[in-house]
């Protein structure tokens, strides 16, 4: 992340990470980089072992397609944007890092857990997730509670992708958060 910032000349950034990207954003934030103005973390797990237990519970009795429709993206039909992203998905990297699917965490990240480190973060944070998310409220709550002063918005009509499932509201929530952060910075 720092090399991207350096290459683009970005001295100050608001960093958004969703799901796996939120895990990367957290790891970057733990390095306390200068110029990190805020974090927006969508459906971001804080513990791979807890994720595994919770997603196994959610997936009981469901085939993979039904699981996706209930807990990843509830839109029917699925947005073309999501279908295009899936077609370019790096399956080998995913399986090496995570495992064969969402609910079987056997990869190199199987023991990843940052719950006890969240108190180290001292940056404004917005945590978002969906009511029907595979990253359930039980998984998101430690993130929202662990980062001092974090705000948590639960999107009632969404699963894992409220930015696609409730885009107008998502943009409104994130925009208002960024405005508050900028106002506090400039005050």
Cα-atom Rg, whole angstroms? 17 Å
Strands, total number? 4
* Number of contiguous helices: 9
Rounded mean pLDDT is 93
Shape: globular
Main β sheet profile = 4 strands, parallel
- Work out the helicity level: 40-55%
Q: What structural category characterises the helix and strand content?
A: alpha/beta
- Uncertain regions spanning at least 5 consecutive residues: none
Distance between the termini: 28 Å
Q: How do the helices and strands follow one another from N- to C-terminus?
A: HEHEHHHHEHEHH
Q: How is the largest sheet built, in terms of strand order?
A: 1-2-3-4
β-strand amount:
5-15%
Molecular structure report:
Strand 3, helix 7 (137-146) and strand 4 (151-155) form a beta-alpha-beta unit. This protein has helices at residues 2-8, 20-30, 48-59, 64-71, 80-87, 91-97, 137-146, 162-165, 167-186, and strands at residues 13-18, 36-42, 125-130, 151-155. 47% of the residues lie in helices and 13% in strands. The radius of gyration is 17 Å and the shape is globular. It has nine helices and four strands. 31% of the residues are buried. With 187 residues, the chain is α/β, with parallel strands linked by helices.
């Amino acid at each position: 992340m720092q090399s991207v910032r350096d290459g683009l000349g970005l001295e100050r950034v608001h960093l958004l990470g969703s799901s796996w990207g939120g895990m990367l954003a957290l790891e970057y934030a733990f390095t306390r980089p200068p110029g990190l103005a805020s974090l927006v973390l969508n459906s971001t797990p804080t513990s791979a072992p807890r994720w595994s237990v919770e997603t196994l519970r959610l997936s009981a009795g469901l085939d993979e397609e039904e699981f996706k429709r209930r807990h990843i993206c509830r839109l029917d039909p699925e947005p073309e944007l999501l279908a295009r992203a899936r077609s370019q998905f790096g399956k080998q990297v995913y399986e090496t890092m995570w495992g064969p699917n969402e609910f079987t965490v056997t990869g190199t990240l199987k023991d990843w857990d940052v719950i006890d480190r969240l108190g180290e973060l001292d940056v404004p944070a917005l945590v978002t997730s969906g009511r029907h998310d595979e990253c359930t409220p039980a998984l998101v709550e430690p993130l929202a509670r662990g980062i001092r002063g974090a705000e948590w918005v639960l999107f009632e009509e969404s699963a894992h992708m409220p930015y696609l499932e409730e885009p107008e509201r998502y943009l409104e929530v994130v925009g208002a958060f960024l405005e508050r952060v900028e106002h506090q910075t400039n005050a």
